[in-house]
Amino acid sequence: MYKRQSDTKMTQTGSTEFNKTTTAAAAAATCCSSDVLLNNFQLKKKSYRVLLHGQRLVWERMQRQSKEKQSRQNEPQKRPLPEDSVYEQQLAGDGTCSYGPHSHILHLDDIISVCSGDTKHESRQPPSNQNMHHGDGDMKPTAQFLTVNYAERLSKSKSDCNRWQLRRITFYNADAYIVRQWHLQLQARLKSSPVGGQRVQRLLVFINPFGGRKAGTQTYERLVRPLFQLAGIDVTCITTQRANQIRDILLTHDLSCYDAVCCVGGDGTVAEVINGLVFRRMRELGLDEQRPAYIPRPSLPVAVIPAGSTDTIVYSMHGTADVRTAAIHVLLGQRRGLDVCSVSNKRTLLRFCASVLSYGYLGDVAAESEQYRWMGTRRYEYSGIKAFINNRGYDAELQLLEEPTEPETPQSPVSVHADSASVCYANCQRCSIASSLQEQRPALFATDIERREERQLHPDQHEQLHPQQESQINLPVGVSVMSNCELQLNTSETALLRPRPIRPVNLPLQPGGSYGSNLNLPGDLQWKIIRGNFFMICGANITCACARSPNGISRYSHLGDGCLDLILVRKTSLLNNVRFLLNTAGRAGDIRNLPFVEVYRTRKFIFRTLTAVTTEENLSIAGSRSPIAQSGNDTVSSEFSSWNCDGEVVTDLDITMSSHCQLIDVFMRGPHSYSKPQKAGVSAPTTPASSSDNVYCCCKD
Ligand SMILES: Nc1ncnc2c1ncn2[C@@H]1O[C@H](COP(=O)(O)OP(=O)(O)OP(=O)(O)O)[C@@H](O)[C@H]1O
User: Measured between alpha carbons, how far is 210 from 314 in angstroms, rounded to an integer?
Assistant: First the structure.
């Protein structure tokens, strides 16, 4: 029990404390019904007034009376706020709260942990090392120091605005009861906040000691483990002994005691985790792994710590491959759904792809570079040059259903649609709409169209559907959702869920080498058939950005909108190939401006080699039947390339790639766009793009 509450002000929103500036009703509407805690603390031997208000921790320097007068005379605009109203909220016209002009504001979503101690040093120890006697029960508290560990995003420049760093601030108060009260309040609010409830407590970590510069273990021990300790996460760590071991463990072991699975490695390691979790879920549900009726969502979220050669998945998620940033996002606990693509041949599902599936140039690089792994990251440069010079173009046919783009309307702002050119940032509106629809729609909804297509293609192989499923499938998508869930979909939403027509079984093929043909179908949707000779073909699930290509090969791909970008690079001249590579490497270039590059947004595409088109029997030259294909290039003929799937080699030549909207939850907020730091004297939150400052759409050009 608390013996004293001296100097502490616990008020209800709308009480006299705040009625000076706001009406009770307005305050309740704006600030929820949360308690307010207000005390004086010392920070680096200076007096500060500290306020815990809803989901915000605010502190501001207290100024002495004499200085106050002085500054009032000299700089009237820097007038200190009067006693007791320093942090009084001022209700802005738009309903948001603002604080004093020199306040430091920290959102609880950005707090990693709170610790108290008898000394400053003790209060900075991870929770497990702390002596608990000063915080619990009825014992007399002794701790006078309170340390708040939090994350802050650095916004240095356009190219460096996504790194996060760990910061801490230690408050001192001579009254240990006040310190205890603050400690308990902060912990309670952290736990009760929506993001706080998602924070990881028990984590299964896989370390790939083989990827990248073979520094996975050191990276984890030096940079990641101390952060996990600070957040009090209980970690079980497994260092892999061989390729595909992660997948095997995830498929067979009991995972009920973990909140999340974390991998320390490159894209191949992330892909192993995703494949392991999705195939595990399919087994749990008794689905046919070769031809599943639908693709289920795994229950465990995935954390990714980069320790590979390119780390495009992590870079696309956070806008940087900084290890600490990735670890901090795990601690903060905020999750977003990440699209995952299934890759199958005509007979079976092969594997899942999280970043890019690429044929031609990048496929050759993947196949070639495996032999030179001893070179480290240099192997990509060496194999890249070799594959570039040897590339004579590959004949192929692609079939796809292009996602429609809409004209701008009041209901569908340009940022959602007309916009094959919107960038996916934190709080992305396009992905949010896809996410909310994903949550509301029936489980079978995600795959009904695919099943319909499959049944057209293979009527004999397809099993009978339940009548209820049939009715869902036969209805147009928007109508089905409205009638089942009583949703009112606006134009933006219906466009994301637009029904797609069935792929015709016997497509009338155009003479070889044509640049593309459309099959007329009802409505504004058309199956497109494209044939040609290609330098490279890419199905990009995400931007595929990395340190060498900061915008990625597919700059406008979204992390969770259920679509993929099909990039076709025609074989032209060597010079044009160089132009293409330079465009992908720089920040300024846009490959879509190149006349020999075509980009299509779709949910699915089908690839065949032209040889396979003429010889249907020869559809799979070297099929990979196992869920995760073995590395190694079995394709002997230079007429064909291989597929590069998340850095691993797949050798099948009849490939279908389908996107599954937000199939996996990952710890991320998404990259941020650069905004110039505000001028001195203007109050700005320490973490401007905190999850809860969800006040703007980041879908910008
Ligand atoms: N102990 C191990 N020994 C050998 N191979 C391993 C081991 N653990 C994992 N692997 C395999 O190593 C391969 C490469 O790993 P990873 O993709 O993480 O690194 P990378 O290729 O250097 O990085 P990136 O894919 O980002 O370029 C993966 O296919 C993975 O299955």
Answer: 18
- Nearest protein CA to atom 4 of ligand 1, as residue: 242
User: Average pLDDT in the 173-180 region?
Assistant: 95
Residue 541 located in a structural domain: yes
Atom of ligand 1 nearest to the CA of 209: 1
Q: How far apart are the first and last CA of the chain?
A: 56
Q: How many domains does the chain have?
A: 2
SS (H, E, C) 346-383: CCCEEEEECCEEEEEHHHHHHHHHHHHHHHCCHHHHHH
Mutate to test the pocket of ligand 1, among 206, 208, 369, 374 (most ligand atoms within 8 A of CB): 208
H-type helices in 193-289, by residue range? 216-219, 225-230, 245-252, 267-284
DSSP state of 223: I
> What domain range includes position 107?
9-156+169-185
Q: Smallest Cα–Cα separation from 259: which of 290, 306, 303? A: 303
CA of 210 to the centre of ligand 1 (A): 6
- Exposure on the CB side of residue 629, measured as CA atoms within 13 A: 31
295-310 tens-digit pLDDT:
999 999 999 999 998 9
* Alpha helices by DSSP H, 50-175: 65-74, 120-123
Q: What was the ipTM of the complex prediction? A: 0.98
Strand partners, 48: 41, 61
Q: How far is the CA of 330 from the centre of ligand 1 (A)?
A: 21
Q: Which residues form the pocket of ligand 1, taking CB atoms under 6 Å from any ligand atom?
A: 208-212, 240-244, 265-269, 272, 308-311, 647-648
Residue 498 is assigned to a structural domain of this protein = no
The CA distances from residue 595 to 576, 586, 591, in Å, are: 10, 18, 9
- Position of tokens 């956070």? 318
Q: Coil, strand or helix: which one is 519?
A: strand
Cα–Cα dist 689/198, whole Å:
19
DSSP state of 539: E
Q: Which residues contact 471 (CB under 8 A, 6 or more apart)?
A: none
The answer for residues whose C-beta is within 8 angstroms of residue 523's C-beta and 6 or more apart is 501
Phi-psi region of 64 (alpha: psi -120 to 50; beta: other; left: phi over 0): beta
Residue 496 has pLDDT above 80, yes or no: no
Best CA proximity match to 207, nearest among 307, 312, 353 = 307
> How much distance in Å is there from the Cα of 509 to the middle of ligand 1?
41
- Nearest of 264, 137, 290 to residue 203 by alpha carbon: 264
Closest listed residue to residue 615, CA positions, set 458, 456, 450, 395? 395
CATH, residue 621:
2.60.200.40
- Nearest CA, atom 31, ligand 1: 243
Q: Percentage of the chain with pLDDT > 90? A: 53
CA of 212 to the centre of ligand 1 (A): 8
Q: Whose CA is nearest to atom 5 of ligand 1?
A: 243
> Among the atoms of ligand 1, which is closest to the Cα of residue 377?
22
Tell me the CA–centroid distance for residue 300 and ligand 1, in Å.
22
d(CA 216, CA 225): 12
Tens of pLDDT along 464-476? 333 333 333 323 3
- Write the pLDDT tens digit of every residue in 241-262: 999 999 999 999 999 999 999 9
Buried residues in 277-309 as b, exposed as e (16+ CB within 10 A): bbbbbbeeeebeeeebbbbbbbebbbbbbbbbb
Give how far the C-alpha of residue 473 lies from the chain's centroid of Cα atoms, to the nearest Å.
30
491 lies in a domain? no
- How many CA atoms are closer than 13 Å to the CA of 271, on its beta-carbon side? 31
Tell me the whole-structure pTM to 2 decimals: 0.78
Q: Is 364 domain-assigned?
A: yes
